[in-house]
Amino acid sequence: MKTHKLKTWPEYYSLIKQGIKKFEIRKNDRNFQIGDVLVLMEYDNTNSCYTGNDCEVVVDYIFHGGAFGLQEGFVVMGISL
Questions:
Q1: For the whole model, what pTM was predicted?
Q2: For residue range 25-51, what is the model confidence (pLDDT) as tens digits?
Q3: Domain limits of the chain?
Q4: How far apart are the C-alpha atoms of 26 and 74, rounded to whole Å?
Q5: Where are the beta strands (DSSP E) in the chain?
Q6: Is 3-80 assigned to CATH 2.30.130.30?
């Protein structure tokens, strides 16, 4: 199990915190694995700065790209708070 710190834009961060958005789509440049912890750090992309808010989620499922329209090298991760 690894911990990954990732930038997350405010509109997505809010939905994750509310338990509405239960997935992350990312380039798989970190070899994400089931059981990994993602520290999602809210990042204001308009002002190019972190807000200071963060939350931890656990990767419960991984769909690897190369099928169903998801580009190879990308993953869709099912996450839970």
A1: 0.92
A2: 999 999 999 999 999 999 999 999 999
A3: 3-80
A4: 6
A5: 3-8, 23-27, 37-44, 49-64, 74-80
A6: yes
